[in-house]
Amino acid sequence: MYIGHFAPALAASAATPDAPRLGTLFVAAQLVDLAFFAFVIMGVENMRVVPGIIAMNPMDLYHMPYTHSLLGATLWGLGFGLAVLAVTRNLTAGIWAAVVVASHWLLDLLVHRPDLTLDGGPQKLGLGLWDYPLLAIPLELALIGLGFWLFLRNSRGPVGPPLILVAVMLLFQAVNWFAPQPEEMSIALPLVALLSYAILVALARWVGTTRRHRRAAGLAMARYRR
Ligand SMILES: [Zn+2]
Asked: How far is the CA of 108 from the centre of ligand 1 (A)?
């Protein structure tokens, strides 16, 4: 799962004006992947390229106990939620940040081959939808479509910035799905992944500055009228 992970970030932003900023939520949505690719570069966690291992990509994610176990993702969520709480002094913001981080594992569970764990142990989990492009592609598009629909419905501001964000996300996703797949492992793989996330986070951060939650916007209006 790639852009589908951002659906919970968009939904959290739509849910309440107290949610963290959109850029922060985009970091939350991919926090365990950001950590995973950084760990791959450092040699703490590992992947290799095995062409044909599953229909939609050649990644054999054989060692990721700290980022892609349920326990690990939950702890990353707790840590990130506490950091957001410390900065914003807003419990609702902290809780949403933690929930969005943890949502990553559940969405990965749908598409990954059995390479996820509960606690880093030998039992591997994954429902393997990446073997069924005709299910996985519409699922991911539906998730991100729903996320943007909620976000646009519940925020006020110009529509251009979110459209640019959607366009770049779809472009990156198309490359991820349809470009020729790497034949062997190289440092470029985690670096390109990290770069793509950085671009999407920067765009989301910008979009977040152009739109306000409809309830916050309504309050500002009411105050102005008085
Ligand atoms: Zn992941």
From this structure: 6
